[in-house]
Amino acid sequence: MKTIRKTAMAVTSAALIMGLTACGSDTKSSEGKDASSRPGDATGKRADAPAVLKAALEKMAQQNSYRTVETGKTGSEPESRAEMTFQNEPEATETKTFGGKSKGAASGGTHILSVGQVLYLATSDVPGKSWYTMEDLDSAPKPSAPSQGKSGEKPKENPERRVQGAMKKWVSALLAVSKDLRHIGRETVGSRAADHYRGTVVLADLERYEGPAMTKEYRDLYLLQTKKSGMDKAQIDVWVDEDGLIVKEEEKGRTPKGDERITEEFSDYGVDPKIKAPDRKDVASWSEYVASAGKKYRTRG
Fold first, then answer.
1. Beta strands per DSSP E along 13-58
2. 201: how many CB neighbours lie within 10 A of its CB?
3. Domain residue ranges of the chain, discontinuous segments joined by +
4. Which end of the chain is more exposed for a tag (fewer CB within 10 A), N or C?
């Protein structure tokens, strides 16, 4: 299986530029149990799936940070795993992937930090350094401080923010074209009570969609990633907790390699992830990395 669709792109791109590559928690049903209403659901009518999911997306956009664990499996291929932490302001992301060994990731995984607009990739290929970057650190923009809104003002989603986790694409696709979106029941995800929603997304329908539920950017990205796997439709399940936040989602579909499943679980909304750029003394430049890693792999091969 390709590793989880989006998380390893930066490392893969770096390896291609160099030419080196050529040489879920349990979910238990508790349907029927009483639960208090949630934001966006003042009357307690959890069965209104579109309203609940739309409100959950809006609330997600207000969160400054959260963590996800994403697992994926296709057919008989090994399961892949990614752990991601996102922060909106100041912009920062940490991604760890776990999978098969490769020249670009001899340890069997990757570790990536993005702070401001600078990407740092963990490496063991440069003596005395733990990270490398393709950016010129002398000219790279400094991370911006969090914006201070007016008292009581609703935080706004940063429109320039990169896609973070699959949440926005999957839920937006459901809201855009699913003809069978519905409330499945009341369940427990880990230790949290949550409402379970399910719908089907047919890619041919999504290709024709133009409307407010999903922007062209997110639509095209979702179509690109899903078509690449060979799907023509996907079943998407979403679990929303009592605070109106998405705690889990799952996409399933049939591909030429067999059934594919990607699951993403969310936690630590609003918790400071404390993502910081590495000490500059511990960061190799791109030219240093190319020289050291290229020499290392030529010697091996």
1. 27-29
2. 26
3. 46-63+162-268, 89-139+271-300
4. C
Q: Which amino acid is at 250?
A: E
Beta strands in the chain (DSSP E): 27-29, 65-74, 80-87, 92-98, 109-115, 118-122, 131-132, 182-189, 192-202, 233-241, 246-255, 258-267, 283-284
**pLDDT tens digits for range 27-54:** 444 443 433 344 444 445 688 999 999 9
Cα separation, 42 vs 58, in Å, equals 15
Q: How far is CA 97 from the centre of its chain?
A: 12
Neighbour-count burial for 251-278, b at 16+ CB within 10 Å, e otherwise: bebebeeeebebbbbbeebeeebebebb
Task: Please report, as a single letter, which amino acid is at residue 238.
Answer: V
Which tokens hold the place of 202? 């047919």
Counting as low any pLDDT under 70, the low residues of the chain are: 1-45, 100-108, 140-166, 295-301
pTM exceeds 0.85: no
Q: How much is the pLDDT for 108? A: 66
